[in-house]
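User: What would this chain look like folded?
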Amino acid sequence: MKYRDKIYGEFEFSGVIEDIINTNVFQRLKKIHQGGSIFLINPKVNHTRFEHSIGVMLIIKKLGGSIEEQIAGLIHDISHTAFSHLIDYVLEVEEEDYHEQRYHEVLKDRELNAVLEKYQMDRTVFMDTGKFNLLEYPLPYLSADRIDYTLRDMCQIGEVTLTEISWFINGLVTFDDRIVLKSKDYAKWFQSKYNFLIAEYFESEENVEINIIMKEIIKNCLGTGIIEEQDFFEDDFYLMDKINQKLNLMQWIDRIRENGLKNKKLKTKKRIVDPEVIINDQILKLSEMR
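Assistant: Here's the prediction, encoded as structure tokens.
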């Protein structure tokens, strides 16, 4: 199976990786936008959880992660709901981990488990993604998940180039089973891009506005029975279609935008990074370096 990643280039997949990608539960991620609702008002921001999940796996593979950790990276987002984190805002889940609460249930998918059994792998190995340090590592440190969504989002909005991404990826190394950087230059670059992503994209007026609007619309639709919570278990287009059977979603969005948001705010998870750097076999956080 040949695959071309927008930011990392061309790859050949086979075996368990190829078979997992071809499952319906993974293919569904093609219809889950990485940026949630923003594609509704900014169609250029249209990258998906499918692309991100493969990207996370590719970083883990490049860093020498085991096949089990590569698989964990590949499937870590299979439980994401329609419009990604929108449901967290609707239900006011402060840690924005609604999808993680569903992960164990989605991991029981029959087709996915048939693939794992074919390759003599135990599903329970992947139940705790937190044990895979390359995939997940607590803030403010680096992880394959955190690195990929930063690079992918920033590239999609035109704030980093493919040349910069290639340069940065070459600065990644592992130490004590976690991701660190080869020099302070890589750490400063990534921290600056991550800070930009949070302030100018995640917390941008455009992004906050559409999420507030969609939060209001979805709460209304849930309250009137137009949709149900389990509809989020499908995908973005399924949910939009179900709303559009009763109401015109885009007209509703435009009407709310025209009327103004009346100082409404969106509470989001706070994120900062302080990358670790390896200097003469010693690990220091960027903030500890002169």
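The first helix runs from residue 15 to 21. If you want, I can go into more detail on any region.
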